[in-house]
């Protein structure tokens, strides 16, 4: 299927920064979160087969971050977490450096760099982008120590999105949050708009609903769409989308390299996800 093939491409996308493979998140259009409107959305960094990568995550309990399963499945060793909205304007990215890159970070390396350490877990039914009926692209990072000074997000009640009929869905905007850059022309070289790796900051944008399945919410992430001002892009994995004060999804995939079309967001309001999150003592709002 086209959906599964495109998702696999999106999951593997990386941007090379100072010789390091970095799957930095990106928002097309939207706004920079310089006012810290989303303090409970974090950047997570980790080592894996592709080198050093990053994703976006949301704080769903004082000790648990919610993200994409393809992020946690790729993580080796300890995960580094930061809630700073601004990471870097240019290379090098100030992430911790692992002494043994094959084994990934240690908690001591993460803490020494001013990040919070945590452990990745992946939904046991994550299909690895092979089964649209059992997508389950969800993971969590369990922090070594609780976060006391940042509010948690509210997860949508079970089957919250089922109430959105197709005509209502197409008129509804979902706020997507992630770390990285907008899609724009480079300052030099080819002028075709593409995801740019810097500045690496937290951004947010609104995208209209396009289609809903039992597992996935698709949105139109084109910032030129008159109904919205942005959406998720390649590598913007694990970032939350909000509606009505609730987190309803995590970013899973994009269908095009320039991200100006359909993005797929993994639903977190479905029983197969919420039942697994309950094992980490994470419950939806009611």
Describe it for me?
- The protein is mainly beta and 286 residues long.
- The chain has a single domain (1-286), classed as Thrombin, subunit H (Beta Barrel).
- Helices cover 12% and strands 38% of the residues.
- The chain has 5 helices and 20 strands.
- It has helices at 2-12, 69-72, 107-112, 166-169, 271-278, and strands at residues 15-17, 20-22, 27-29, 31-32, 41-48, 51-61, 64-67, 76-82, 86-88, 116-122, 139-143, 173-180, 183-184, 194-195, 200-212, 216-220, 230-232, 240-243, 246-254, 262-267.
- The protein has a 6-stranded antiparallel barrel. A 6-stranded antiparallel β-barrel has the order 5-6-7-11-10-8.
- Strand 1 and strand 2 form a beta hairpin.
- The longest helix is centred in the N-terminal third of the chain and has 11 residues, at 2-12.
- Mean pLDDT is 84; it is low at 1-26.
Coarse morphology: globular
Uncertain spans, ≥5 residues at pLDDT below 50? 1-26
Biggest pleated-sheet summary: 6 strands, antiparallel, barrel
Coarse structural class? mainly beta
Strand count: 20
Under CATH at level 1, the class stands as: Mainly Beta
Task: Kindly estimate the percentage of residues that lie in beta strands according to DSSP.
Answer: 35-45%
The portion of residues assigned to helices is: 10-25%
Count, helices: 5
- In N-to-C order, the SSE pattern is HEEEEEEEHEEHEEHEEEEEEEEEH
- Report the radius of gyration as a whole number of Å: 17 Å
In spatial order, strands of the major sheet run: 12-15-16-20-19-18
What is the CA-CA span between the terminal residues? Answer: 36 Å
Indicate the mean pLDDT. Answer: 84
CATH topology term: Thrombin, subunit H
Number of domains: 1
């Amino acid at each position: 299927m086209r959906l599964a093939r495109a998702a696999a491409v999106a999951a593997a996308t990386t941007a090379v920064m100072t010789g390091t493979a970095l799957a930095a998140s990106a928002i097309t259009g939207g706004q920079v979160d310089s006012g810290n409107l989303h303090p409970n959305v974090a950047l997570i960094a980790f080592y894996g087969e592709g080198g050093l990568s990053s994703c976006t995550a949301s704080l769903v309990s004082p000790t648990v971050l919610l993200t994409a399963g393809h992020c946690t499945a790729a993580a080796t060793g300890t995960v580094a977490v930061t809630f700073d909205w601004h990471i870097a304007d240019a290379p090098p990215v100030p992430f911790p450096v692992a002494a043994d890159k094959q084994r990934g970070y240690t908690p001591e390396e993460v803490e020494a760099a001013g990040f919070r350490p945590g452990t990745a877990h992946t939904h046991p039914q994550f299909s690895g982008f092979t089964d649209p009926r059992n997508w389950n692209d969800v993971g969590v990072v369990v922090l070594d120590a609780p976060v006391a000074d940042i509010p948690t997000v509210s997860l949508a009640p079970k089957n919250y999105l089922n109430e959105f009929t197709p005509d209502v869905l197409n008129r509804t905007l979902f706020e997507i949050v992630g770390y990285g850059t907008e899609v724009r022309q480079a300052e030099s070289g080819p002028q075709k708009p593409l995801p740019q790796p810097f500045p690496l900051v937290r951004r947010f944008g609104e995208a209209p609903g396009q289609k809903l399945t039992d597992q996935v919410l698709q949105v139109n992430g084109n910032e030129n769409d008159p109904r919205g001002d942005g959406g998720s892009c390649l590598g913007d994995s694990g970032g939350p989308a909000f509606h009505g004060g609730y987190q309803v999804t995590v970013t899973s995939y994009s269908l095009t390299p320039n991200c100006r079309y359909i993005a797929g967001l993994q639903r977190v309001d479905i029983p197969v996800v919420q039942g697994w999150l309950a094992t980490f003592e994470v419950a939806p709002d009611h």
